[in-house]
Specification:
By secondary structure, the protein is α+β, with helices and mostly antiparallel strands. It has four domains: 34-119, Nucleic acid-binding proteins (OB fold (Dihydrolipoamide Acetyltransferase, E2P)); 120-201, Beta Barrel (OB fold (Dihydrolipoamide Acetyltransferase, E2P)); 221-288, Nucleic acid-binding proteins (OB fold (Dihydrolipoamide Acetyltransferase, E2P), Beta Barrel), CATH 2.40.50.140; 293-377 and 418-439, Beta Barrel (OB fold (Dihydrolipoamide Acetyltransferase, E2P)), CATH 2.40.50.140. The protein has ten helices and 20 strands. The protein has helices spanning 15-28, 73-78, 101-119, 153-158, 164-171, 196-214, 292-297, 372-383, 389-405, 413-452, and strands spanning 38-47, 50-56, 59-64, 84-93, 96-100, 122-131, 134-139, 142-147, 177-186, 191-195, 220-229, 232-236, 241-245, 266-275, 280-284, 305-314, 317-321, 327-331, 352-361, 366-370. A five-stranded mixed barrel has the order 1-2-3-5-4. It has a five-stranded antiparallel sheet with strand order 8-7-6-9-10. Strand 6 (122-131) and strand 7 form a beta hairpin. The longest helix has 40 residues, at 413-452. The protein is rod-shaped, with a radius of gyration of 44 Å.
Length: 453
């Protein structure tokens, strides 16, 4: 019988279609999972032994509680059947996979650390231990290493020294929370190198900018001494360091800043100057304390005759210390009634002299002294003593004869002396101001040199 071409052939069950379904099912079902493979499943049940997870392909896996240590108690109690969960295959036992939530988190953390290294993000970590080279720090479930060279300046100061002293310093940081940045990640070798110094510097830069806008000149701030140098001390004000110049450490002369402050010491300081452009902060420790000079100088008055000891000599005069450690200047013009080239021609360091107080300037903490006028006052007092009648007659006769043969009038003498005194005072004032200006220039130069370093 001949079948026409346009006649449709009736459908017949196909053995190939059934075989295709079987093959498809076999493709969906994988008989084994590789060790270390990350799998995503859903929670089937939870008991004291762990969490049973459906990982697909007709397979189940158990996450023992010992492999879920990174899951805190609140998160564990919140788990319920049907919740998604990611774990790593550890091994296969009796047809069931042993999974690890902790190892899956670690793998995720390693990948995240690589991203944080690229972005330079500051991370929070906890010191878990230490060795000779630095600190072991837990970050995002990964134990990283902070070398000694990468510690922050504050922590670096605590581990100064060598051997046992350094080890003891590192031990004091156990359990402390610190901020770090990732500077190297090697997943194959399971190594992560961290830097507390970089993180600290970044945070300090941000705090410094904010603090500079908040500081007010004349206000008092609490801080901690972070370093001591020959020219002064640095104080952390809570994100920004300021400099206390050696001249602002104490009202008394200071030969070395370490005599007044030590690293780590907490102090109250006064803000002297804030430079927004250079970001420098000038501080004073002595101005937070009462000025003994102001208290002591109250017992003196201008014109008073006092005893003073010469402490040092300069080309423009000599400095003398009075009772109560108050120091004043004897200008070179007030040392003698004759012209001298250097104060050493008249006075010697360490020697005591009778001096006259010419002026007191409390606001500027200046005291003007005179050796010449003290001697003149002493001579005037001697000449003012009563004379016997014969000496008085001789004096009158001498004065009359002097007037007769010379046109000079004795009443002009006070005017001439007054002119010389006024001239001397003016010269003393100018020299004293020049000396103070020189001191301020030296201090500014020291601060500029420090900031450059």
């Amino acid at each position: 019988m001949v079948r026409l071409q346009d006649e449709e052939e009736p459908e017949q069950p196909s053995e190939m279609s059934e075989m295709g379904l079987l093959l498809a099912e076999q493709e969906d079902w994988s008989p084994s999972r590789r060790r270390g493979e990350a799998v995503e499943g859903s929670v089937i049940s939870i008991d004291d032994e762990g969490v049973l997870v459906n990982i697909g392909t007709k397979s189940e896996g158990m996450i023992p509680t010992r492999e879920m240590r990174t899951l805190d108690s609140a998160e564990f109690e919140a788990l319920k059947p049907g919740d998604p969960i990611v774990a790593t295959v550890v091994r296969e036992e009796y047809g069931q996979y042993v999974l690890s939530y902790d190892r899956a988190q670690a793998e995720r953390s390693w990948r995240q650390l690589e991203k944080e290294q690229e972005t330079g993000t500051v991370l929070d970590g906890e010191v878990a231990g230490h060795n000779r080279g630095g600190l072991l720090v837990d970050v995002m479930g990964i134990q990283g290493f902070v070398p000694l060279s990468q510690l922050s300046p504050e922590h670096r100061a605590l581990v100064q020294g060598e051997g046992e002293e350094q080890t003891n310093g590192l031990a004091t940081l156990q359990g402390e929370k610190i901020s770090v940045k990732v500077i190297e990640v090697n997943r194959r070798r399971q190594r992560a190198i961290l830097s507390e110094r970089s993180a600290s510097q970044e945070m300090r830069d941000e705090k410094r900018l904010q603090l500079l806008t908040e500081l007010e000149v004349g206000s008092t701030r609490h801080g901690r001494v972070t370093g001591v140098q020959d020219f002064g001390a640095f104080v952390d004000l809570g994100g920004a360091d300021g400099l206390i110049h050696i001249s602002e450490l104490s009202w008394e002369p200071v030969s070395s800043p370490s005599e007044i402050v030590q690293a780590g010491q907490e102090v109250d300081v006064q803000i002297l100057k804030v430079d927004q452009e250079t970001r420098r902060i000038s501080l004073s420790l002595r101005r937070t304390q009462s000025d003994p000079w102001q208290v002591t100088v109250g017992q003196f008055s201008e014109g008073q005759i006092v005893e003073g000891t010469v402490t040092r000599l300069a080309a423009f005069g000599a400095f003398a210390r009075l009772e109560g450690n108050v120091e004043g200047l004897i200008h070179i013009s007030e040392l003698a009634d004759r012209h001298i080239r250097h104060p050493k021609e008249v006075v010697t360091e360490g020697e005591s002299y009778t001096l006259k107080i010419l002026r007191i300037e409390p606001d500027r903490r200046r005291l003007g002294l005179s050796l010449r006028q003290a001697e003149e006052s002493s001579q005037s007092d001697d000449s003012a003593e009563p004379k016997d009648s014969s000496e008085a007659d001789d004096s009158v006769q001498s004065e009359n004869s002097y007037q007769a043969k010379d046109s000079f009038r004795p009443e002009d003498a006070p005017l001439a002396e007054e002119s010389a005194m006024a001239r001397g005072l003016r010269e003393a004032t100018e020299s004293f101001r020049a000396a103070e200006s020189l001191r301020e220039q030296e201090r500014d130069a020291a601060e500029e040199e420090d900031s450059t370093e």
